[in-house]
Amino acid sequence: MSFQLRQVPLLSRVGADRADQLRTDTDAAVAGWSEAALLRVDLRNQVLVADGRVVLDSAAELGAAPPPDAVFLGRIEDGRHVWAIRGALQVPDRADVSVLDIRATGDIFDDVSAQLVSSAIALLNWHDNARFSAVDGSPTKPARSGWARVDPVTGAEEFPRIDPAVICLVHDGADRVVLARQHNWPVRMFSLLAGFVEAGESFEVCVAREVHEEVGLAVRDVTYLGSQPWPFPRSLMVGFHAVADPGQEFVFSDGEITEAAWFTREEVRAALAAGAWNNGAAEAKLLLPGSISIARTIIESWAESNL
Fold first, then answer.
1. Calpha distance 123→161 (Å, rounded)
2. What pTM value is reported for the model?
3. How many whole angstroms separate alpha carbon 33 and alpha carbon 38?
4. Distance between CA atoms of 193 and 239, rounded to whole angstroms?
5. Which residues contact 249 (CB under 8 A, 6 or more apart)?
């Protein structure tokens, strides 16, 4: 009754050197600024891409030193430092450059670009919503090259917040899987069950609780598969699969799920072959998430397995 992920989720792959030692070495970080690359992320968390890579500008165009709101992402293969800022995208007059929202698609990225974009969005989203101390409400300032914020009065540091969430493929131990649809999703668009981990709760307990709350099923044999950062705004998706009895009735009690059903392996394989819901599969009987999500990686791995 077990299977493993057939590949590492796109946003979980090792790409750039995070070079975390440079976050507190201000002199070294500033020394690399003149040759550094710059990743721009707009207010909609979109970036520019060309030829399968994120477009990087020259950081020196912003001045002789990193601006206070810039965040350090690490080093790329040629040794250059990479920083990110929030700002309007400067789209060049080139046919090969396009604006990309990774929530829609990200499979065109190489591993380095995927890591840079994921980290940049997560950090910038955190800064946008962490400008005041959670302790006393005092205004805070960026520190550690964007990896912390500091209360200038007390010196107290705050670090980027990560919200863990579970995502689970529920199957019958054979050839059927539960897929569900939220009320605000397109018709025929289905995915796995997911939810945020509550205080004092393990991942496995969260899986059982969320599945029961969302569709009324009791599950067993909860098994870890893998994880993926999801920077919208700051989640870490932790993937599992679990077994449920198809004889149980679906009950939608928390208002998030409007529809759920058991699908056969062949139906899932057909949907995967049709492509992602936002990439040419509009006429398919069943629409599944895009390849940027760990949900699709889990579904593909189950569909290819022989439980």
1. 9
2. 0.90
3. 10
4. 10
5. 216
For residue 233, cis peptide bond before it (omega within 30 degrees of 0): yes
Q: How would you classify residue 170: left for phi > 0, otherwise alpha for psi between -120 and 50, otherwise beta?
A: beta
Distance CA 14, CA 112 (A): 7
Q: Render each residue's pLDDT in the chain as its tens digit; 307 residues.
A: 679 999 999 889 888 899 999 998 878 888 899 999 999 999 999 999 998 899 999 999 999 999 999 999 999 999 999 999 999 998 888 888 999 888 876 666 788 998 999 999 999 999 999 999 988 899 999 999 999 999 988 999 999 999 999 999 999 999 999 999 998 888 889 999 999 999 999 999 999 999 999 999 999 999 999 999 999 888 999 999 999 999 999 999 888 899 999 999 999 999 999 876 655 555 678 999 888 899 999 999 999 987 6
